[in-house]
Amino acid sequence: MKYSLLTLFLLSLCHLATAQQTEKHYLSGTGNDNTVNWQFYCTAGQNSGKWTTIPVPSNWELQGFGKYNYGFAKDSAKGKEQGLYKYKFQVPASWKGKHINLVFEGVMTDADVKVNGKSAGPTHRGSYYAFKYDVTNLLNYGTSNLLEANVSKHSANVSVNEAERKGDFWIFGGIFRPVYLEILPVEHVANVAIDAKANGTFTAQLQLVTNGKATDVSAQIFTTSGQKVGTPFSSKISSGGRVTLTKTILNPLLWTSETPNRYKVEFQLRQSGKLVHNVTKYVGFRTVEIKQRDGIYVNGTKIKLKGVNRHSFWPTSGRTLSKKISVLDVNLMKDMNMNAVRMSHYPPDDHFLDVCDSLGLFVFDELAGWHGHYDTPTGTKLLHELITHDVNHPSVIMWINGNEGGHNRELDALFAREDIQKRHVLHAWEDFNGFDTQHYREYNYGISNYNLGHSITLPTEFLHGVYDGGHGAGLDDYWEAMWHEPLAAGGFLWDFADQGVVRTDRNGAKDPLDTDGNRGADGIVGPYREKEGSFFTVKEVWSPIKLERREITPTFDGTFPIENRYHFTNTAQCSFTGKLVKVASPYDVVKPIEKSFSVTSPNVKPLEKGALKAALPADWKNYNFLYITATDPFKRELFTWSFAISLPNNVASSLVKTEGAGNVALTETDSLYNVTINGIQLSISKRNGTLRQVANSKGKVQLTNGPILQEAANNFQNFTQRTDGKNLIIESNFDRKSSYNTLQWTVFPSGWVKMKVRYFPSGYFTFMNGVNFSFPEAEMKAVTWLGKGPYRVWKNRLKGGALGVWHKEYNNTETGEQPLTYPEFKGYHANMYWCKFDAAGNPFTVATENEDVFFRLFTPAWKTDQWHNYEPIFPSGDISFMQGISSIGTKTQRNETTGPMGQKYAFYDYEKEPARAIEMTLYFDFSGK
């Protein structure tokens, strides 16, 4: 970038106006949404061997250079590219006589830097850490300068590669975070480390560069709106360049994940009363205490962490992010009612921690290491850079020294030496320093082992997501056990977002997103932050306001028992609203009728129980559903719970018409009952009672070959037909030994058809049970249903949905794979009342009078993981109506090991007595309307 004389003059004026403050002059852009082109030469891979340009910051693979590499590939020889960067920039003459640092926020992986042909300093090795060089004496003032950076993707230091580049995540190359000049007075505050405690005590350690001239330093605390808090405090400067400032303020507003109160502190370096340098920092007053064999205490309150692991990742830019993405990610976490996030497996962008500070998330900040670790000299330097950079963020409450064996134990003691706050240090995946953080423990082993142990339990990874498995699936079981176990401090799900990288080396391939098979498809949200089904389950399970399960009966008085699972917030600070909804039939296009009602916010203290009181209108029983919405003090929805007023039998009785003017006609062949009524033709097998063919005036309805019982004997036999008034009944006979499951069809003169099955599961334990039909998938266009939606469910992931009318068009989405269309069409759907199937111009509707019926739409084309853990089981056929469905596993656990809800259904020994059979009744409208 070249400056005109006018621009240089304006820069000089700007500098004079801000001479007493630290200035930042960006040589790069600030993120993936704001970049600057530098000259670039890649030595190997795509587009190598020629000088061109590249946006900075960026990862060069995403810009079409070099070779893509997932960590397990272990940096093959072809992947050891180097990137040569050049950038010309101007420096105003007015900067002469100032101290100027050249700052890199992050470079992958080794960086050799020159300014005007001279080395700026030693090679920096390590990707995720900010580093700087004093370039005061290397610059040409008032004219042009040349910055050169030789970046090696593969480090010359073996331990750096072991710690950073052999992990289970994408590895990239390049200057991926911003680069800027830091312009300071010659005498300046070089660094500030702050400890602000909940009791109001404030301590700041300042590292000064004074040349013996500056005489004193002072500080003043302000609110973020600029109001002074207390009086200024100061200290004289002694030799050594280090000064400690202390102050106590009265009753500070405290920082927590629920109350992210911050203050601004202004430091002034003076020489005989004259201001030399002015520095501003933001802080939060809070105290984090670890009580061994007890738990984590923040400001004196024992907390439980509802957390997720988060990689710094975006599909089109790799590890190069932006403040906008940080805001997006933290808001999504807060929307899921999370209160914590773990940096996996390296420090994040500074702006991410800023957003965690301002919106409120507890952060575990991590020194990189994944099975391998840094050697001690390298780790010592990088640890210093990590803590120097992140020390003042109130959101950071713990440090992690490497992940899953990537711990250099010689560095443990250095954290306390470097950190003014002496934050606790963990080893992720170890029982270490009072915390058992072991990963992916099975529910029975993990919870029981934790309950029998003496360490505070805090799995830094649990319920490893893959595609649609994990995360929400199993979370309810795990969380309730964690919540009630005194030594459990919560945990962190793996992980936040699917890591699907856009491949620039696939020559316009239709599917450019690459998750390296199942390795990167681990998110609760998609690569572009699409909300997947588990998002809503996590939101409900981790809501800090917990509504107890209850049935809405005619005697309901509007009282909802609740539990306040906040740590610092009274429910009186939240707001609650209510709504009644009356839905239309599947044949109406009118909107639901809604009526709001007030809900009093009760005064329930944190961690206590109480009740909500709804002011229901007199006609509330005339509606189908009741909704309660809880909103936090910042107007963020916690969750909306839905309750059934009308049960399926109520809705079915008003929807299904049995009376009609027509007459049901029956003819028989050797193998079929052929029935006609009002233009509808049915063929039913005499042998087994299955529906063989359906047609109406529009043509065939393709639902056939059912009901077929799932995990039960298909022994419907000895069919007979009879009339009951104007109704035709075709039914099997019960025999305790050979035909103990029974099927009955009733055809009404209205044209509606009733199917009733009574059946016994094949064993005491079953994965799923219900009835199946065949239907050609290519004929299905959409479904509209009354029930819980809009996302599919699993036996161990039933929470997160809402009762109502839902619609979705057919799609073939597999979670975590393109196309990223959500909610997915295929799978199980809960609490069906009725469902209208839009089938290639000839729709049909199915209703039930049974509660808790699931309808299943086809079978997703599941991909697999190497252990075959997460794969769910689907019934036969294409469309099913189920009273039991399968659960789903995670990448690291089978479904049955994620807790009771992941296990099979258990039944008593029914002894095949008719009165003990399971019943399901379905109604079919094949009229085509």
TrEMBL record:
Claim: Hydrolase is one of the keywords in the record: yes
EC number: 3.2.1.23
Residue ranges constituting the Glycoside hydrolase family 2 catalytic domain according to the UniProt record: 288-545
Cofactor: Ca(2+)
Enzyme class at the top of the EC tree: hydrolase
Gene Ontology molecular function terms on file: beta-galactosidase activity; carbohydrate binding
The Glycosyl hydrolases family 2 sugar binding domain, residue ranges: 52-183
GO cellular component entries: beta-galactosidase complex
InterPro entries: B-gal_small/dom_5, Bact_Beta-galactosidase, Beta-gal/glucu_dom_sf, Gal_mutarotase_sf_dom, Galactose-bd-like_sf, GH, GH-type_carb-bd, Glyco_hydro_2
Keywords, in A-Z order: Calcium, Glycosidase, Hydrolase, Signal
Glycoside hydrolase family 2 immunoglobulin-like beta-sandwich domain boundaries: 188-286
Spans through the membrane: none
Beta galactosidase small chain/ domain segment(s): 722-841
Protein's UniProt keywords contain Calcium: yes
Catalytic activity: Hydrolysis of terminal non-reducing beta-D-galactose residues in beta-D-galactosides
GO BP: lactose catabolic process
Superkingdom of origin organism: Bacteria
The protein, known as: beta-galactosidase
Species, as recorded: Spirosoma profusum
Signal peptide: 1-19
Assembly and oligomerization: Monomer.
Similarity field: Belongs to the glycosyl hydrolase 2 family.
